[in-house]
Design a protein that fits this description.
337 residues, 12-stranded mixed β-sheet, alpha/beta, 2 domains, Isopropylmalate Dehydrogenase
Length: 337
C-alpha cells in the first residue's frame, strides 16, 4: 500500500506543539511509514524550524513527497495572523490552532489525507477566539457533523475509554446512561479490533467508591451500569463490572483486561499518565476519520525552551500511520496472557 499521508496539526503556537511536531519529524524512520505534512503557518512554525536548522517547504495541494528530517512540508490555512509570544493565552493562538484542525479535518473528510495526529490546543485561548468547544474531541465531533465519540488513551501497558471527558465532576452522574455505555463499548471494540485485539476483554470502572458497595455509596452501579453490563454480556460482549476504580487498573495492567471504560476524565487520565507519561496516544473513536494525538497539554511554562519531549507525538504519528494503512500499530499494546 502507498504510504499514508498523515497531517500533523501544530496546536497552539504559544505552546510546545510546534516544538514536539518538528522534533518528531526529525526521526528518519517515520518517512518509511507515512508521508507527513504539518498543517499550520510558516510564521508560527518558523521559530522552531530556525532553532533546529530545518527547511519549511509549502505543500499547497498536498501532493509533494519530498519530505524528510531536513525538509518539513507545511500546508497553510488562509489565516495570516501573527503567532503570539510563547507562553501566552491569546485569541490569536486559539484561532491559529483551530484553523489548522479545521483545515486538516476537511482534508481528511475529502480523503486528501489519510489521518490526523494533533498537537495540543489551549482551551483558554480557544475560548478567547470565540470557540466554546471543551477540547479536540468535541471540536472534531462538531467538524464531522456530530457523531457520538469517545476519547481513548492507549499505552503499552494500559488502555482506557471515557464515558465523559471535559465536563464538571458534578455533571458526570447525569451522563452515565446505559445507552452511553453501549456506545463506548462499541467504539472501543472497533478500535481494539483495528489494533489487532479481536474479542476484547473490557472492564467497566464504577463511578463511586468501591463501585458503590451494593448501593451504600451511590446507586449508579446498581441502577444503570450493572443492568447495562448484563445486557451487553447477553449480547456476546466480554464486559466485566462495575469494578472498583482503585483496583481495576492494576488488573488491567496485569493483563486481565484489554481496556478499562472509565466514568470521567481524571479517572482515566491519572493512571495513564502515571504509567505512560511519554508514550501514550490519545485516539478519538467514533469519528469517520482517523485522529490520534499526544496525551499532554500545551505546557506554556516550558514553550520555546527546547525542553519538550516528542515521544508522545512520535507514538501518535506511528499509530496514525498504522491505522491508516490498515495494520496493527507498532505502538499498540499486546495482551500479556
Amino acid at each position: 500500500m502507498t504510504r499514508p499521508r498523515v497531517a500533523i496539526t501544530m496546536g497552539d503556537p504559544a505552546g510546545v506543539g510546534p516544538e514536539v511536531a518538528l522534533k518528531a519529524l526529525r526521526e528518519p524512520g517515520l518517512y518509511e511509514r507515512c508521508r507527513p505534512v504539518v498543517f499550520g503557518t510558516r510564521a508560527a512554525l518558523g521559530r522552531e524550524a530556525a532553532a533546529r536548522g530545518v527547511e519549511l517547504a509549502l505543500d499547497p495541494d498536498l501532493s509533494r513527497d519530498d519530505a524528510g528530517p531536513e525538509r518539513i512540508l507545511v500546508h497553510e490555512p488562509a489565516e495570516s495572523i501573527e503567532p503570539p509570544p510563547y507562553g501566552e493565552v491569546s485569541a490569536e493562538g486559539g484561532e491559529l490552532a483551530v484553523a489548522a484542525v479545521r483545515l486538516a479535518t476537511r482534508a481528511a473528510l475529502a480523503q486528501r489525507i489519510d489521518a490526523l495526529a494533533t498537537a495540543p490546543l489551549n482551551k483558554a485561548s480557544m475560548r478567547r477566539a470565540g470557540y466554546a468547544h471543551a477540547g479536540h474531541t468535541e471540536l472534531l465531533a462538531d467538524l464531522c457533523n456530530g457523531p457520538e465519540v469517545s476519547m481513548l488513551l492507549v499505552g503499552p501497558q494500559l488502555r482506557v475509554a471515557h464515558m465523559t471527558t471535559h465536563i464538571a465532576l458534578e455533571e458526570v452522574p447525569g451522563r452515565i446512561t446505559a445507552e452511553r455505555l453501549e456506545s463506548v463499548v462499541r467504539i472501543a471494540t472497533e478500535l481494539l479490533g483495528r489494533l489487532g485485539i479481536s474479542a476484547p476483554r473490557l472492564a467497566v470502572a464504577g463511578l463511586n467508591p468501591h463501585a458503590g458497595e451494593d448501593g451504600l455509596f451511590g446507586e449508579q452501579e446498581q441502577r444503570v451500569l450493572g443492568p447495562a453490563i448484563e445486557r451487553l454480556r447477553a449480547a456476546g460482549a466480554d464486559v466485566s463490572g462495575p469494578l472498583p476504580g482503585d483496583t481495576v487498573f492494576g488488573a488491567a495492567r496485569a493483563g486481565r483486561y484489554d481496556l478499562v471504560i472509565v466514568m470521567y476524565h481524571d479517572q482515566g487520565h491519572i493512571p495513564i499518565k502515571l504509567l505512560h507519561a511519554d508514550d501514550a496516544v490519545n485516539v478519538t473513536g467514533g469519528l469517520p476519520i482517523i485522529r490520534t494525538s499526544v496525551d499532554h497539554g500545551t505546557a506554556f511554562d516550558i514553550a520555546g525552551q527546547d525542553k519538550a519531549r516528542s515521544s508522545s507525538m512520535q507514538a501518535a504519528l506511528r499509530m496514525a500511520a498504522a491505522l491508516a494503512a490498515g495494520g496493527v500499530s507498532p505502538a499498540s499494546p499486546r495482551r500479556t496472557r
